[in-house]
Amino acid sequence: MKTVIEQDFRPLVVLYGYRSKRDTLSFVGRGGLITLSGRSATAQRILRLCNGFNNVADITRKLRTISPKEVAEFLSLFEQQGIVCDSRDLHLKFHEDSANPAKFSSDLGVDGVSDILRSQRLRRREGNVTQVPNPVVSNVLNVIQDRKSTRAFQPGQISLDKLSGILDATYSIGKNGHWSVASGGGMYPLDLYLIVLDDSQQVPRGILRWNPEERSLITVSDKNPSVWLSKIFNAKTLLENAACILCIAANFRRSTIKYANLGYRLTLLEAGHAAQNTYLFCAEQDIGVVECCGFADEALANELGLLFPDEAVLATLIMGKIGTDVQTSLSDQEVSEKAERLRHILVGDNKPIKDVLFLDLKVDGYTMPMWSTMATYRPVPGRLTASMKRKSVAFATGSTSSEALLKVLSEGFERYALEQNRSDRKESALNLGEPFLDPRVLVPYSDAQFKNLKGVTPFDPRRKLDWVIGSRRATGERVWVPLELAYYATKQMRHELKLCYQASSSGVAAHFDKEIAIDTALYELVERDAFSVTWYSKRRVNSINHECLPLDLRDRISEWKRMGYSVSILDLTLDGPPVVLVIIWSRKRRPAICSGAACRPNFVDATLKAFNEAEFMAMTWHYHRSRPKMEMSEIDNPESHGVFYLDPRNLEYVDWLLEAEESNVIGEDFKSSLQYLEPVVVDITPKDHACGLSVIRVLSEKLMPINFGYGNEHRGHSRMDMLSFRWSEKYPSTPHFFA
């Protein structure tokens, strides 16, 4: 309870409550039931008087048998639990309930919104019609006609005098003492903040607060806003090349202390006046501007140093130089619509994906500046092992919620497709009469390995197998692929077939464009090949100096250093496109090591993707329950690789990599074709779910596959000889940390 107004506190019950059992009251709260046990009769007597008109003194006077101290304690408890609030502060509850991310939403979908836009804007009213003439000539009307929202910017500076004009127009005191906007009761509760995105502007990068009385800007934070901006604004293309963001915030108490809840409405009106002034000045000065209210309210308030919900941002205006180039990438809105359509098709009862969950990952005061999602896909009944059913999940990260949703739906559908195995032909390799992929070349095991490995048996070209049809990407030549190389090994397959291999998801990708899916899968194969070759050969690699990396990434690395972790950026590139391995590690903390790897045509792009993966792993493994020391021989799946390296004692197996020599040189862009890998492409898209995604499995005899499990490495693969490397250990090798 607010001690400064304790006796004047006017409690109003805002949650439905009932007597659930003897001496217990339950209330229906936003996050579930709130249960209060003990002295329920006293609690009920107090609650009956919480009508929003009685203050604490009134309630105490009317309940003479209950001491003032007890009344105050009960009311304090009720307020803390959200059961009552001051009747004059109802607007704060509404503001929290209407904040982003939305607790309650209409969920209309793309088609539902389109229907509304096509409908009549307002209810029709009957009456006499009076036509009005054209208006007088007015400069104000001309500027209003020029007012528009800009959704594409180009690099450029907003000069200091124009920035001064924006601030003056939005919220300032004129020479005559008049403010630039009207304010209910002359209270002027607005509080403006300027987020400057980079060092190219004439004011310092960071967060600056506007003081209209002194016409000055004060830096309240010099942190790099680009790190958290996309996540909080849930936007990517909208923010590209923007110069700054003007945040119109308010201290509601300034107005509501006089007008109570009406003051909230007056404050919103004032913010609207200020935003329109910004638009008009920008229209006159040919400055691009767009209002954005889709930000995460509490998160933005925290970054600005506001005391949410009493102080909150009401609107933001993104500004910069108006873009002239045609946008080539999908806009935020287009990505959102695409993701929502895919969600409608794939998620729900009797659909491939059960549900999608957004994760807000935080560790030691640091929030991952990416949207993180998890999708639970629907396993095929009776075909998966119990372990596989528990792990029927897919994860993804994205700059926006829609990007993350689109990725996780694609990933979930990809994993779902891996279980929908089909057989295009059952025949022995000798009798196929067409080319086939030979497991003895692609995923070779020695005779000794077959004796130790469970669930696999040597490939026999005379034995009849189930095959799926694929093709060489370059020539279109038909190539037969053993079923177990293309799909997950389900429980049914293990029971009915003699499998020569148990496939993972490496080299599988889903995309609306089949060619992009093929390239994505190929880049993943190159990445896993580079990691496997490096791990088993212990070849010398370079650690990239952090100063060579983008500022945003350096700032994120600094957060992990603050938490006691080191970050290694390793260049694993072999004879193809750039491959980057990022390791977040500590000798004193758990998890001891988490990693992410990526292959992209551009080195920096690969680094960013790898870092996002490593950071996601570090965030999620942070909450993994510790267990007694694990033996290498217990490692039998991807997750157990990660569990083994949670223990700092096992860093001794990775020291050779963590001590890599530092380099100031980053890899060059890859501009060639991936055709040199001579990939075989297998389309494993489930035919009973037409969602537009193509799910592709890609295989190449020229690349070493990654393995999972102790003693499961592909000793006989030709890749080591091709690169003139040797195996650094005798069989079985130390298991890697890639999870």
TrEMBL record:
- Stored InterPro entries: Nitroreductase, Nitroreductase-like, SagB-type_dehydrogenase, YcaO-like_dom
| Pfam families to which the protein is assigned, alphabetical | Nitroreductase (PF00881), YcaO (PF02624)
Q: YcaO domain: from which residue to which, for each copy?
A: 396-739
Q: By its UniProt entry, which Gene3D superfamilies does this protein fall under? A: 3.30.1330.230, 3.30.160.660, 3.30.40.250, NADH Oxidase (3.40.109.10)
Q: What are the GO MF terms of this UniProt record? A: oxidoreductase activity
- Its protein name is YcaO domain-containing protein
